[in-house]
Write a structure and sequence with these properties.
This protein is mainly β. Helices cover 0% and strands 61% of the residues. Strands 2, 4, 5, 6, 9, 10 and 11 form a seven-stranded mixed beta sheet that branches.
């Protein structure tokens, strides 16, 4: 069983910055990659950024230059968002692709953390 716990969300003024954290715990073989998705009101969930166990990163084109994903260790990642805009208001979800040590992997999700950008 894998548990992902996000933290760091809240109310931020436009132009501000925010750092989200995600910690994974539980009984699993390893994590292939971790990432962040978000779902804005009335919109589909979308990828924000991902980082592999080797440190390779992938960012949504629309957010490149404003977001940075990084790893503290194999089970904890951060997402920094700069120059926040009201359009960044969303629930941000942590995702981890779990390596079972067998022939398959699966995605695990956190409960989400609300980010609201407003003056």
């Amino acid at each position: 069983q894998v548990r992902l716990v996000e933290s760091g969300g809240g109310l931020v003024q436009p132009g501000g910055s925010l750092r989200l954290s995600c910690a994974a715990s539980g009984n699993f073989f390893s994590i292939n990659y971790m990432g962040w998705y978000r779902r804005a009101p009335g919109k589909e969930r979308e990828l924000v950024a991902q980082i592999t166990k080797d440190g390779a990163t992938n960012y949504a084109d629309s957010l490149k230059g404003r977001v940075t994903i990084s790893r503290a260790n194999a089970k904890m990642v951060y997402l920094e968002i700069d120059s926040l805009e009201p359009e960044d208001t969303a629930v941000y979800y942590c995702q981890a692709n779990i390596n079972t040590g067998s022939y398959y992997s699966y995605d695990s999700w956190g409960q989400g953390t609300q980010v609201t950008v407003s003056s």
